[in-house]
Write a structure and sequence with these properties.
The protein has about 300 residues and is of the alpha/beta class. It has a five-stranded mixed β-sheet with strand order 3-2-1-4-7, with helices on both faces. Strand 9 and strand 10 form a beta hairpin. Helix 3 crosses helix 10. The longest helix has 25 residues. The model has no long low-confidence stretch (mean pLDDT about 95). The structure holds zinc ion. Zinc ion binds next to loops.
Length: about 300
């Protein structure tokens, strides 16, 4: 059975796995960045490499340059235009190496092995964290786009008169619904983290919202409303079956998912939008590894 190496480049750890075409994980490893990202990558790949691998797939934090096969993850300053495809190919001589963004791999992994695998022709994966990323699976294939940037749902404008986004545009959903944006808005509206001098972050905000703190609840409602706009916009354009939500903010569970489903339920108009299914990820980081493997295995063609 065909097996490939999957690599997931996160901001603080690198994960890898050998995964076969049935979706079985034959080996798994994860390393902190430690003594340098390049040395860690080599250790990960050489530790997992074995005879008979058909190739490798890599999911990486962005920005990426797909044509050049390079990555410049924001949280890894030592890697700017790092030639990750050439580096991994050099460790697996003669094997094809595929690259995509981490959120794109999350979407593809959810489509292939997630809770609704086999039920969705079109799936949008969205990662709500310090930023907001996404990936679009159309008929079983991750759609990367000519520059590799398809799925940048965090930069859909949901408030044309809103706050300026670091990307240069105005009112992007990321300026409202990312963890730092929600925290900033809640503090400005008088939120007291943890009811007093708690840590002012998205985790505390979620905990406060879960016990009914009105400012924290309002921050989640505002974020859910912005996310609903971006999701319905995408669904209207691409006839999406399923949205899978992951990332640190999504770890808030029902605190985010309940107002999000409610906002979508209230505002979805056309029948094909009312059938949109919104789910929290049940796979965690494994979605990214499965997606990276799927880049190399192409299960839609199997
Ligand atoms: Zn933006």
């Amino acid at each position: 059975m065909t097996a490939v190496l999957a690599v997931d480049i996160g901001g603080t750890t690198f994960a890898g796995a050998v995964i076969n075409s049935s979706g079985a994980i034959l080996a798994h490893a994860e390393y902190p960045l430690g003594d340098g990202p390049t040395a860690t990558l080599r250790r990960l790949v050489t530790g997992l490499a074995r005879p008979g691998l058909a190739g490798a797939g890599i999911g990486s934090a962005g920005p990426l340059d797909l044509a050049a096969g390079t990555v410049s993850p924001v949280n890894i300053p030592g890697w700017r235009r790092f030639p990750i495809v050439a580096e991994v190919a050099g460790l697996l001589p003669g094997k094809p190496v595929a690259l995509a963004g981490d959120a794109q791999c999350m979407a593809l992994g959810e489509w292939w092995r997630g809770g609704y695998a086999g039920q969705a022709r079109t799936l949008l994966g969205i990662v709500v964290s310090t930023g907001i990323g996404g990936g679009l699976v159309l008929d079983g294939t991750i759609y990367l786009g000519p520059t590799g940037n398809a799925g940048h749902i965090g930069h859909i404008t949901v408030d044309a008169t809103g706050e300026r986004c670091p990307c240069g545009a105005t009112g992007c959903v990321e300026t409202i619904a990312s963890g730092p944006a929600m925290t900033r808005w809640a503090l400005a509206s008088g939120w007291q983290p943890g009811g007093g001098p708690g840590t002012p972050d998205a985790k505390t905000l979620a905990a406060d919202a879960a016990v009914g703190d009105p400012k924290a609840v309002a921050a989640f409602a505002r974020a859910a409303d912005a996310l609903a706009t971006a999701l319905l916009t995408t669904a209207a354009l691409c006839d999406i079956d399923t949205v899978v939500v992951g990332g640190g903010v999504a770890a808030a569970g029902p605190t985010l998912m309940d107002p999000l489903r409610q906002a979508i339920g209230e505002r979805a108009g056309l029948p094909f939008l009312r059938r949109l299914r919104i789910e929290a990820t049940g796979m965690g980081r494994h979605a990214g590894l499965y997606g990276a493997a799927a880049l190399a295995l192409n299960p839609a063609q199997a």
